[in-house]
Structure formats: structure tokens, C-alpha cells
Design brief:
Layout lengths: L1 H10 L7 H25 L11 H26 L7 H33 L5 H9 L1
Helix pairs in contact: 1-2, 1-4, 2-3, 3-4
Length: 135
Amino acid sequence: VLGLLVWALIADTTYYLHAAYSWVMFVSIFLWIVTLLFFVTYLLQLQLKFYMIPWPLVLMIFNAAATVLYITAFVTCAAAVQPTSWRQWDYNRRAAASFFAGLTMIAYGVSTFFSFRAWKGLGSNAATSQVSDHA
């Protein structure tokens, strides 16, 4: 949802006049689509059919790459916002897009942390801890 907000806010401005916003659009749309594909994969439990793929590792690498890309998009978007814009609504939308790009960057960073824990097997839920304690 946060990534969708970023590219929707940027797309509603005259981003094509500024090269920096084209990078932000690319990062936000590309990562939004890939995240949506991973979501559908897990929603339909397709990862169980492709058991030979190390899904926790794939998700950790994706989330780490998405975090790095969103860092660049956030910095680019925030640096390109100019308060002396000739269109006030462009300024407001670009500033809001910068804010949501920062939130998206943080969300992908947190996902990277939890993906790392899942990959290393450090995370457990109540069901697995209950079973292992009584077995």
C-alpha cells in the first residue's frame, strides 16, 4: 500500500519534466509489482509447489535489494522537492511521496530483518514452540 501511494502521488505530478522523479517512478512501480507477485505466490501457496527454491533466502535478498533501492528513491525524491515550485499541488504531492517513500523504505528494512530471521531459523511461533516443548 505504501509503495502504491508513492507512485500514485508522483504519477499525479509533472514528473516527466524532472529526471529524478523518473527514477522514483521506476523503483516504486517495479518493486510494487514484484511485491504483488510475491504476495499472490504466498496467497495461493504456490511456494509449496516450488519446494526446491529456498523461499526465505529469496525473500531476504529481495527485501534487502528493495530497501537499498528505496533508500536511493527516497533520497532522490526528497532532494528533488523544491518549495518554490510553480505549481503548489505538485510540491504537496512530491513532499507526500517523499514521506511515503521513507515509510516504504523502513517497511522493507523491517521485512529484511524478519526475512533474515526466517532464513536463519531464528523465528518461531507459538505452535512450534508448544510442540517442541512437549515432544
